[in-house]
Amino acid sequence: MKRRNEVTWFVLTDGSRARFLAGGPETPAYRLVGQYESKEARLPSRELVSTPPTRVQESAYSGRHSVEPRRDPHVALKAAFARDIAAQLKAAGERRDYTALVLYADPRSLAVLRKVLDAATRSRVKAEIPKDLTKVPLAELAQHFVADGVA
Predict the structure, then answer these.
(1) Domains in the chain, ordered, with CATH?
(2) For burial by CB atoms within 10 Å, which of 11, 62, 67, 86 has the most?
(3) 141 vs 143: CA distance, rounded Å
């Protein structure tokens, strides 16, 4: 049974945008608490890398080839975005804005977010659903929450 003052936040993220929704036992609808977006993480790779790959000469054969960077710039930007989301959740938790969290994210973003959450925030997570709901209209989200058994 839920306490009357319990507020659950639903965190919907995909690595470049996130929405925080609040709901509780006395709240018939979910309200938008915060919305965040990383415009850089949404750019194509060609716009993120400012220099062309380095050209190298190998002695094994007479051709030249380029050396690609070992890290995908999108991966780094999405990890930074997840750290920002985790910091927002930590601050809100310290203010006692919520008592429980439900995380909705695509599987990769969920794995990254899980790693960057601090222990106190992680202890408030009551469900993790590997599903991207970032583009679902606010009016339709309650149906997903009920279907997933987290509402």
Answers:
(1) 8-39+70-147 (3.30.420.60)
(2) 11
(3) 5
